[in-house]
Amino acid sequence: MKALYALALLGVVVASSLTAGVRVYTVSGNSMYPAMRDGDCVVVAPVSFRHPELGDIVVYDRGDLVAHRVIARGDGYLVTKGDNLSEVDGKVGYDRLRGVILLTLPGGRFASAVLQAFCVSSLLLGIYAVVRILLYGLKVE
């Protein structure tokens, strides 16, 4: 029965993360080398979940999505730069931010597929566990 509670908790955590706006992207390009390589998979939390700090890598929209490191902060904006680039991006308004990178996984599409399969299976097992707990009560064996 304890395993059932663990599955239910895992399902709730994954569902909460997805509902909160946590997203998975595949990196394209080498502007953040060696921290991130072309094809790596990144897990991004929305700014409402995790506020960006100096040194964090953020994802922002400039017509396409860009992942660069925060090197300065101002009132209502960040200044970012790719680790492997010499020029600074300039001011990035908070309205253009998509989130802060929480985790980088090498392996690109494979890592993304594994992560998505984990999320789906966690949700399904979590739903099963919650339904079973509701049907059979909260007995601890």
Short summary of the structure?
The chain is an alpha+beta fold. The protein has two helices and seven strands, in the order αβββββββα.
CATH fold-level name: Umud Fragment, subunit A
Structural class: alpha+beta
CATH homology group: Umud Fragment, subunit A
CATH class division: Mainly Beta
Give a count of the beta strands, DSSP E runs of length 2 or more: 7
Description:
It is a single chain. The protein has helices at residues 2-20, 108-136, and strands at residues 23-26, 41-45, 57-61, 65-74, 77-81, 90-93, 97-105. The protein contains 2 helices and 7 strands. Strands 1-2-7-3-4-5-6 form a 7-stranded antiparallel beta sheet. By secondary structure, the protein is α+β, with helices and mostly antiparallel strands. It is elongated and about 60 Å long. Helices cover 34% and strands 30% of the residues. The termini are close together. The chain has one domain (2-136): Umud Fragment, subunit A (Ribbon), CATH 2.10.109.10.
Secondary-structure topology with pairs:
Elements: H1 2-20, E1 23-26, E2 41-45, E3 57-61, E4 65-74, E5 77-81, E6 90-93, E7 97-105, H2 108-136
Antiparallel strand pairs: 1-2, 2-7, 3-4, 3-7, 4-5, 5-6
Helix pairs in contact: 1-2
